[in-house]
Amino acid sequence: MSELKEFRLPDVGEGLTEAEIVAWHVKPGDPVKDGQIIIEIETAKAVVELPCPFTGTVTSLLVQAGETVDVGSPIITVDTSPGGAAAAEPPASTAPASLAPASTAVGSSPAETAAEVDPAPPPAPQERQAVLVGYGVRASSTTRRPRKSAANHVPGEPAGAVTPGRRSDEGATREGVTAQRPAASEGKVLAKPPVRKLAKDLGVHLSGLTGTGPAGSITRDDVQRAATAGPADGTGNGTGAGTATASTASYEDQRIAIRGVRKHMAAAMVASAFTAPHVTEFLQVDVSETMAAVRRVRELPEFGEVRVSPLLFVARALLVAVTRHPLINSSWDEAAQEIVVHGQVNLGIAVAAERGLIVPNVKNAGAMALPQLASALQQLSLTARAGKASPADLSGGTITITNVGVFGVDAGTPILSPGESAILAFGQVKDAPWVVDGQLAVRKICTLSLSFDHRIVDGELGSAVLRDVGSMLQDPVRMLAWT
Length: 483
Known about the structure:
Dihydrolipoamide Transferase; Chloramphenicol Acetyltransferase; 3 domains; 7-stranded mixed sheet; 4-stranded antiparallel sheet; 19 strands
């Protein structure tokens, strides 16, 4: 007797109200086990993988990739009857290749990719490590080759075998014979979920594109070039003889859906800008000594495995300034009509990731030694840019640094992260004339910009914090004296 159970979209933390379906890892008829990753969703802060809470057989997918679903809505049904549950555990030696998902699941090991060329029993899946908030993020965002499918399988040939004149997944052919691979359907095209979403939004068919990314994968630039070229060949990819010229395409409007991180960022910035009265102050600083210190620290064995940049010294200077002026590390509690001065510093670092601007933070950064802080900042940046930042990484920040200098910008007026009272912008370091001991010299100069919530931080406090940070960057020894 069939026992159907519905899996409803859960709240993975931070008061989630809705999420967008990025990709399914299963289809109707597939066996699933309790704890098996079945879907990727994009919340307002991160891409999160969800495991199935049942063992059985998938009967239907109630939502499709690209849809936005409210928390609590059913998204999949699973037959958990004895027959359906038994189907979820086929013998390892006789498991048919057809049970594998049509598209390679994110996070598969290199051994699985090799098995597509040389058939072998699949390795046991790695255990997932539980996290405190939600279900964790994708194990990997690296691009890999697609699995063999019926579209390019030769009748009578074992799955994954390579025949003369046909390319293997490693790009090689037997006996030196080269032949073109049969055209795959759009669902088999090698492209990451965000790229597929962009193509869908712009009306571009992936099957007609030639990828320029690793292993021939399609990138965002490939999609945008195709969209700009226009529908010259009837596919929307502009690959026909009548491809539109750049001068014509430049007048065409493009519409990009406001979703996920970009939607959250926009709402947060509007709320912050029109809730907290912003004040921004600027200070030019001679950072020649800091740049020299960066070079010396890079040579120390304690920093051998991390990339030391001027941002490390900016972060340490701000942390020291917080110990001297604790009120700068605070929040305004409107409901309680109180100012909350935080006991620890969760240092946020603004990161321009592929999915939009995000601000992960280093928890209790003020308690870290310099090598530990350098390692934490590097790991935070790598994790965020790879799209692996968890909701826990993106929540709880108390004060933020944004490094606008990496974009070649001298200064700006940054908007506060919601719930914080200050954000420091670090501009580009460049050679400029500077007066030293009454003489004109060429020095390394940068501009610091501090925006603060004027309900909490008055001009005197904001100026004191900015002046202290500048003094420590001008003379890094002050960090030792003031710690």
